[in-house]
Specification:
Helix content: over 70%
Number of helices: 14
Oligomer: single chain
Radius of gyration: 24 Å
Number of strands: 0
CATH architecture of the largest domain: Orthogonal Bundle
Shape: globular
Amino acid sequence: MGGVLTDERGGRRWWISVGLLGLLFVVLALILPLAIVVQRAFDAGFQNFADALASAAFIRSIGNTAVLALAVTISSAVIGYPYAYAMARSGKTLSRILLIALMLSFWTSLLVRSYAWQVLLNDTGLVNTMLQAIGLIDEPLRLIRTPAATLIGMTHILVPFAIFAIYSQLRGISPDLAIAAHGLGATRARAFWSVTFPLSIPGLAAGSLLVFVLTLGFYITPQLLGGAGNQVIGQSIVEQTNTLLNTGVGSAMAVLLLAAVIVILAVTARFLGLGKVLGIALERNSA
């Protein structure tokens, strides 16, 4: 009996130690750096925030970021939904192939993928070379350093997040529902739009929200593929901290970005129901 109690206590101590190590990691890797950024943002009161909001370049970057985030979200949803649907409804072999192809994108560095698009879209890249070879253009198109290049690169990087969220929701929808609707006289298209699609909206919303929020903080891809006139918030922050060495204003910009993300999540929770958007069955958890 004493040996059993000793083993149980030892097991508890082990789990407590693991939990404390995890808490320490979160503090050192997330909370402490965030606290330093907030402290630097307020080291001159609200002056850093006033300077940030007085910067015309920063205001433009907010607009550029919002437009880009919306465009990437829409393109990721349009591309991701059919892919996720194919993964959820196809046979095991095709589903596994699609899943492996999707996982390969996660295993490839974000920087490598951005550089790959830079190579593909430049004046002597594969896209311009093929268009010239088939006679569609005489001179290379200006594809690099454009908003379109940034949109393509960021969609390629972020669409897997949308796919996984949509796929997770679709996997929970029984195909028998669409089959039953089809048996009652509905066409396949009507069965999809009347049954499957409405039930998959929480996953689509979750994926769209995730992509939108992630887009707000991007830096590498817009820096490599975008032009000087299409600066986003991440580039403005790096310019302030690394180029102008104005860490106070840069930190204030970062805090404003964080506040924007928190507001977006709060609005989502208030009007859409954060549990539904994130695909969490709160009722099941509480049951």
